[in-house]
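May I ask you for just one protein sequence along with its backbone structure tokens in two labelled lines?

_____
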Amino acid sequence: TANGQVVYSVAEETERGASVGNIAKDLGIDAATLSARKFRMITGSSKQYFNINASTGALSVNDPIDREQLCELKSVCLLNYELVLENPLELYRMEFKVLDINDNSPSFPLSEYHINVPEFLSPGTRFTLPNAQDFDEGTNGVQNYTLSPDEHFHLEMETRGDGSKYPDLVLKKALDREQQATHRLVLTAKDGGDPPKSSDVPVIVTVLDTNDNAPQFEHSVYRASILENSPAGTLVVQVHATDLDEGPNGEVRYSFSNTTSADLQQMFLIHPHTGEVTVNGILAVQRPLLEMLVEARDNGAFGMSSTAKLLVEITDVNNHGPEITITSLTSPISEDAVPGTVIALLSIMDKDPGENGKVTCQIPDNLPFKLKPSLENYYSLVTSGLLDRELISGYNITITATDLGSPPITTQKTLWLQISDVNDNPPVFSADTFDVFVEENNPLGAFLHQVSASDPDMGENGRVSYVLRNSTVAGSALASLLSVSLANGSIYAKRAFDFEHLRSFYFQVEAKDNGSPALSAAVTVNVYISDQNDNAPAILYPISQNGSVAVEVVPRLADEDYLVTKVVADDEDNAQNAWLSYHLAHSSDSTLFHLAPHSGELRTTRSMRSTDFLKHKVVVVVRDHGDPPLSSSVTVGILLADTLPQALPDFDDSGEPPPLLNTTNIYLIISLACVSCIFAAFLLFLAIVHLCRCWTCCSSCCCPADEYKKYRYSVHMLPSSHLPLDMLEVTGVGKLTHTYLYRASVGLG
């Protein structure tokens, strides 16, 4: 283990469940925390070859590995894994070296090989035998070849210029076709495994008696280099072989050997006559060096051939863009995350080798994040500044990866990072203070005002509720006067206000969010109670007690504009509701007194006379200017006297004659007039009846004088001092000095 990386070696084909190691012990991790830290293994392989026990940290084989299938012909077979742990986020790199075992036998491309040998060839002539392929590595690959015993042939190993070995069939004794036309040999390829494995292939030698020279290449190994994006038809190399024979036996045709893999034969074409090797299709290979065998065969009746090795180096071009993989992402992230908090783990790979595969990575500068290199090809996305969800609730982070090729290739990937809310904002009221104006005598439960506060946080953190802060107003608890809606901040009156007792007060409403811990703010609400005209003026002077009349004594011969008294009144209301005016509602003598409307001073209009009544009574009305106005009155008795009497007279009857035309007198006059009319009509009726009788008597001779005696007249006289004013007065004639009332009654004697 070194630099956060641990390397394991495991043999291929290891059975499922076999132990490889203990990742917890090897990396110094507490095995009990693996499950809680959500460990996971990440690999680019299509299969999950290994497994970790979440309880013990034991690393075991999950799926047997076939090294030859996984790594083909690579000399070193490696599997790279990343172990990702969260809380906190950690990354460990694991490398598994897959060791080769001798699980593959050598194999020949064909099941049978045929060799045509002219009979006239001399001993020592060589014939190329096919190479066996063994997918195992090193000593487990093909190590030697053997040939079945034969008196005419034996096997020799040859070495090419690159050090590779191949078998040659060597003629050790001249052939005689007439004695034996066909020789059946068995070529055996054996690897160096323990135990070794081998494979056999029949080699059938047909003896010919023509064409005794095989083509010979100028070089045993040809080398070429091409760009990996070379189009079809691009010339790779031209091979050349010569044949010393003449005619058709010396004409050479070129082709790829049967031992060359089929995929390489599809990528390249070789011209049969010129030996030009050209690109046939897309060079879709990951190996930088391709190996092929080119065969040259003459056109003899029994064509002879030879082979040469062609090594083609694929020069990389920058044709792969960087690949960005988001290995781990924490979203949403809390807005109170401290700078340096790991948000995401990114894997950035470029399949190109060398400089073309080196990558630089960056994000926009105007974001509160930065990329921090981690392990090879890994970057951590961390916070570099403070986050505020109320300003920006989420970020589209564009990751730009650019390789160092020429021209460079750029890849971008955008990830969405959501910012989660924390309760970091208290409620804010819409105003610093609120002024509420309410009229007194308001109904119970009347709506007064609505305070409003906002909280930019989300959800419960931004849900605001309202309460009244405990306080007292005029000695009473605030809760007995007001209530506030918990949900919307509406303020209601719980009792009627009285301007005369409480003109203004203030209190505080607290807005609290539902976060944890909760944040709050308070605002002052000023309540101003406006006046209504609900109080009549109160007369402070003069004062009447128990319904009696207040008495003021004025000198008997007081001068004009003499101050009789001053009416003093007060109104508990305010402003125009308390503006008072004074009015004289009644006076026993309207010519004697006048009242100042603004000061309430009652003064004499003229000088007093000896003929004026001694007692007077006035009624003063005090009226405010409310809407509607209210008023109060006071009755003042005025006594004209030079000295203060020992006992005040009764002002219920002032001694003044009652008004002649008051309502009672009018009714009495009408009644007397009616009675008088009826009585006059009755007298008139009697007179008419009497006259009618007289005329009747006169007309029927003479009426006796005694008849007149039947009518009696009576006259009563009353002295004038007993006459009512509304009765008929008769003035005497002659020397009579008194007025008499004559009451006459007429009756029948």
Summary: Residues 423 and 457 are 6 Å apart (CA to CA). Residues 654-658, 701-749 have pLDDT under 50 and may be disordered. The chain is about 10% helix and 40% strand.
